[in-house]
Amino acid sequence: MSLLRDVVYGAIRYAGPATIGRRLRPGALVLCYHNVVEGAVVAEDKGLHLARSDFQAQMAWLATHFTVVTLDELHARVSSGRSVRGLAAVTFDDAYVGAMTHGLAVLRALGLPATVFVASGYPGDARPFWWDLPAAAGAATDAARRTRFIEDLRGDAEAILVGVPAVPDAVAAQCRPATWDLLRASRSESVRLEAHSVTHRTLPRLTDAELDQELRTCATTLEQELGSRPRWLAYPYGRWDTRVAAATRAVGYLGAWTLAGRDVTARTDWASAPRLNVPAGIALDAFVAWGSGLAHWRSKADGG
Questions:
Q1: CATH number assigned to the domain comprising residue 125
Q2: What angle do CA 85, 278, 198 make, to 5 degrees?
Q3: What is the mean pLDDT of residues 260-286?
């Protein structure tokens, strides 16, 4: 009851800015989450693992102030020339166990759709993602080290963890990639499972052959395991360039998603469609400012 009270009070408190924000936002808001966890979890990358209570409060606010649609519906509206102002979409990268259980449960209760981007090399493997291992914890807080991991080492888990003892048991179950069985059980008309490459390497740093393999094999594997070919791709780490965008189109994806932090509008290039990344530590009032468009409007006014 206390959570429900807090959500209701929060919605009342921010009703004014939210109404203004729907006018300030130039287009549709597409949110990017990673994981949703229940209880106290010690996670190495604290920016990714959002508490379920915080996610529930954010989604309750979103459902009150936006019309939440699928990525396909958003694309269809833009393609037909209809307005997308006041629309929002919810996405998850990496297909964590917590996202597939706690996150989707919150969305189902609110009647909201979602898209989950799956790195196809992980559901059949017991490996956690490299950034969740204690040995790589510094990458979450040290900008220079993270840049080296993602750019110089191409986001390649094997290269990053060379000589470092991997201790999978140190990673909580809800902070690991979901299995194929869990992914299959999570599918529904309102939950789409889409592509996030095979190995979650940094695509612009790969050779042409490696890039093609990441894009094609991911699509083929998801089709084999889940019964439908993915239409959308989320670029690992949000990294892309014109070569990667062209390769994405050549493989047949309808579009691909970045972390550019802008709105989807009639001018959006679907090979580099923007999303707003939501860090796990964000307070509700800051989330409301982002979602309402006030932060977006201020950054434009400041020339940011």
A1: 3.20.20.370
A2: 100
A3: 93
